[in-house]
Amino acid sequence: MRSHLFPSSALLVGLAFSNPALAQQHGAAAPNLAKPNMVLQQVVEGLPTGDKQTVRVMTATFKPGDKTVYHTHRFPVTVYVLEGAFTFELDGRPPVTVKAGEAMVEPPKVPMTGYNRSTTETTRVVIFYVSANDTPFLDLHSH
Known about the structure:
Number of helices: 1
Order of helices and strands: HEEEEEEEEE
Largest sheet: 4 strands, antiparallel
Strand content: 25-35%
Mean pLDDT: 85
Helix content: under 10%
Shape: globular
Structural class: mainly beta
Number of strands: 9
Radius of gyration: 17 Å
Distance between the termini: 26 Å
Strand order of the largest sheet: 1-8-3-6
């Protein structure tokens, strides 16, 4: 799937662990139990505060040279890079390149564009977005 919209959202992975897993975290051996790998932990501002929110988990594939539209999000967006590298250009900040296995939170209400700067590699991302209900994923902006 090729996306012309910017892939984005917050890295929300919920894992339930049994008591042996908790024991493993405290040093006791617990065979055959998966342990999560922390990719990103960050305090963010601007999350929705209502009784109910909408959670979106999306994927996007960027061919070499592809970019997103110039846009903002009303709430923070977390992007996890599965494959390749993705460069974020947020207004007023230096570009940030996030590589496979890394994640970044896009702040709300900051105009930005994202790019696959590679000339040979495809970039694949997972986007996590928690928003107020009936909120669009992004708002288009002109340069």
